[in-house]
Amino acid sequence: MTREEKGAIIDELSQKFQSIPYFYITDASGMSVAETNDLRRKCFENGIEYVVVKNTLIKKALETVTSTDYTPFDGEVLKGFSGVMFHPENGKAAAKLIKEFRKTNDKLKLKGASVDYSVFVGADQLDTLINLKSRTELIGDIIGLLQSPAKNVVSALSSGGGKLAGILKTLSERDEQ
């Protein structure tokens, strides 16, 4: 691979790392060609881009990213065989795919991930990443919590007014009889 080709790969990766807030670094070493093709097919079906790149190129691309500190990846994450999964919209999609794929093939391992520019290191983080709420889900939860007291007050006032009117009507009907 020439220096120009390496530079082009580093530039492409650094653009993806800066623009896509969700990526996972995996280890698929020991997988057969058929198993790798199955993984790639499942990635394609789920809208995930899967790229196998040399660790040195990944490291150099991550060094160009200024928004997040990716130095925790320098240890065990960027050793051995590395593949990167990118999903532009969903931070859970790759984690769910990895967990589902591991049910039939335990050779695929999570080495590290970046979700909304937060760094997660280690295979033990997979369940955490699956259960992690996205930014829009958290905003929706907060809005729901903020609206809840107001809805309770409005419903209490509207239902109380109806009861009060009913009681007054019944009392007025009694007085007339």
List keywords for this structure.
single chain; 177 residues; alpha+beta; Alpha-Beta Plaits; 2 domains; 5-stranded antiparallel β-sheet; 55% helix
Structure description:
With 177 residues, the protein is of the alpha+beta class. It has 2 domains: 3-132, Ribosomal protein L10, N-terminal RNA-binding domain (Alpha-Beta Plaits), CATH 3.30.70; 134-177. 55% of the residues lie in helices and 14% in strands. Strands 2-3-1-4-5 form a 5-stranded antiparallel sheet. A hairpin with a 2-residue loop joins strand 4 and strand 5. Helix 1 (3-19) packs across helix 3 (55-63). The radius of gyration is 27 Å and the shape is elongated.
Number of helices: 6
| Overall pLDDT metric | 84
Which of globular, elongated, flat, extended, rod-shaped describes the shape?
A: elongated
Care to count the β-strands? Answer: 5
N-to-C order of helices and strands: HEHEHEHEEHH
Architecture (CATH level 2) name of the largest domain: 2-Layer Sandwich
Strand order of the main beta sheet, please?
A: 2-3-1-4-5
Looking at CATH, the homologous superfamily of the largest domain is Ribosomal protein L10, N-terminal RNA-binding domain
Estimate percent helicity.
Answer: 40-55%
Distance between the ends: 101 Å
Radius of gyration, taken over Cα atoms and rounded to an integer in Å: 27 Å
CATH class of the largest domain: Alpha Beta
Mind summarizing the main beta sheet?
5 strands, antiparallel
The unreliable regions are none
Residues in β-strands, percent: 5-15%
Helix-strand makeup class: alpha+beta
Family: Belongs to the universal ribosomal protein uL10 family.
GO molecular function, one term: large ribosomal subunit rRNA binding
Pfam family, one: Ribosomal_L10
Organism: Fibrella aestuarina BUZ 2
